[in-house]
Specification:
Blueprint: H1 3-17, H2 22-37, E1 42-47, E2 57-60, H3 63-75, H4 79-86, E3 90-92, H5 102-111, E4 115-123, E5 126-135, H6 143-197, H7 201-215, H8 219-231
Antiparallel strand pairs: 1-2, 1-5, 3-4, 4-5
Helix pairs in contact: 1-2, 1-6, 2-6, 3-5, 6-7, 6-8
């Protein structure tokens, strides 16, 4: 393993450990790319997450990259959108002479961006994001620079896959915890109804559900109101089996 790859992996590991969300990891990834790939380079990143809104989550290493991303969004064209759509890399040697995406290239050149290199980020075996590199000199991405960027994109794709899996696990755990807490509150409310109406648990639940439907109030919220009315204080929201 080369020293460059080891440095990339060390930086990606640190970014993972210091990130609390996919969005934060993406920001650290953009900064890491700009810092390690080439001096004076700017980096933008975009990720299209499954199950989320169609608008991509974006991150930038600096204001220039952010402005370049905004230009592409406003122009409705550019290398980043092409990579997100088709999953193939794009190289622009000189924005002043490049014939494709004239709206983006013209405005990018006015910002001082002369060359670009865009690479797909692959998660779970499919392109889902883009690593967008911007340089202030034309033809900045020769064979050596392109190879270095591709190695980084491959390593970043693996780390991003792990970040997305971790986020998915956290979401599922939070949903499970919320479900357990909701069930506990509903059970407390059923106990109150059973005691006051002298009925079975099944009948108590049918009564609770009927009131919820007729008043258009969520079952958990209605249950919390019943428990609060009976006890004089809101139900405890600590999930069962949770320490503390």
């Amino acid at each position: 393993m080369s020293s460059e790859v080891r440095e990339d992996l060390a930086g990606l590991q640190e970014a993972l450990l210091n990130s609390d969300s996919v969005e934060q990891f993406l920001r650290q990834l953009a900064a890491l790319a700009a810092r390690t790939l080439s001096e004076g380079m700017s980096c933008g990143m975009a990720l299209r997450q499954q199950g989320r809104a169609s608008r991509a989550v974006t991150a930038c290493s600096d204001p220039l990259a952010a402005e370049a991303g905004r230009v592409q969004e406003e122009a409705g064209e550019g290398p980043a959108a092409h990579v997100l759509r088709h999953g193939c890399r794009v190289s622009i040697e000189d924005t002043a002479t490049h014939g494709r995406w004239p709206g983006f290239c013209r405005r990018a050149a006015s910002l001082g961006i002369r060359s670009c290199y865009a690479l797909p980020l692959v998660t779970e075996g499919a392109p889902s994001g883009v690593l967008m590199l911007y340089a202030r000199e034309p033809e900045a991405f020769g064979p050596e620079e392109s190879s270095r960027a591709e190695r980084f994109a491959a390593s970043a794709s693996g780390a991003l896959t792990l970040s997305l899996r971790m986020a998915s696990c956290l979401d599922r755990n939070e949903q499970l915890r919320s479900s357990i807490v909701s069930r506990a509150v509903i059970d407390q409310a059923l106990g109150v109804i059973m005691a006051t109406e002298h009925c079975s648990q099944g009948k108590a639940f049918a009564m609770l559900r009927s009131v919820s439907q007729n008043t258009n109030v969520k079952l958990r919220d209605l249950a919390a109101t019943i428990v609060t009315s009976a006890s004089g204080e809101p139900p405890g929201l600590t999930a069962p089996f949770e320490d503390g």
